[in-house]
TrEMBL record:
InterPro entries reported in the protein's UniProt record: PBDC1-like_dom_sf, PBDC1_metazoa/fungi, Polysacc_synth_dom
GO cellular component: cytoplasm
UniProt feature coiled coil, ranges: none
Pfam families, sorted: PBDC1
Domain Polysaccharide biosynthesis, chain residue ranges per copy: 3-126
Protein name: Protein PBDC1
Length: 136
């Protein structure tokens, strides 16, 4: 139980830091890993039609999708530190981390989806809404 609490705290801290980052820096200019472009290219080749703006939990957790995600994630073993470590991921990219807007994902899934969201402008709304609030 203590280990689970420590993991939960670490995952929450990571989520909080990431959300603060995309709130204060234009997400298009963020680099999350040394291999962002490779992750993005392979992600979009593998998941051409995945709606990254508003994920459905089945996009990550259904048996059918697990069979697609598993080989995608495993190819990054050794390239991304703790590639399969548990991470929190927002379902709706326009909203903050809340109980009903958060799903458990691997670190590679988090990177793939958030890199795509950043490159495709999906996280812009977080940045613009936070920066416009700070100006008022």
């Amino acid at each position: 139980p203590q280990l689970e609490v420590l993991w939960a705290m670490k995952a929450y801290n990571h989520a909080e830091v990431y959300f603060n980052l995309i709130s204060s820096v234009d997400p298009k200019f963020l680099k999350l890993t040394k291999i962002d472009d490779d992750i993005y290219k392979i992600f979009r080749e593998t998941f051409k039609d995945l709606d990254i703006k508003k994920l459905n939990p089945d996009d990550l957790k259904s048996e059918e999708m697990k069979e697609v995600w598993r080989p995608f994630c495993n190819q990054f073993q050794g390239l991304i530190e703790d590639f399969n470590y548990g991470t929190l991921l927002r379902l709706d990219c326009e909203r903050d981390y809340t109980e009903d807007n958060t799903i458990f994902a691997t670190r590679v899934q988090f990177f793939a989806i958030e890199i795509a969201r950043n490159k495709e402008g999906c996280n812009d709304v977080v940045f613009t809404s936070k920066s416009s609030k700070s100006e008022s």
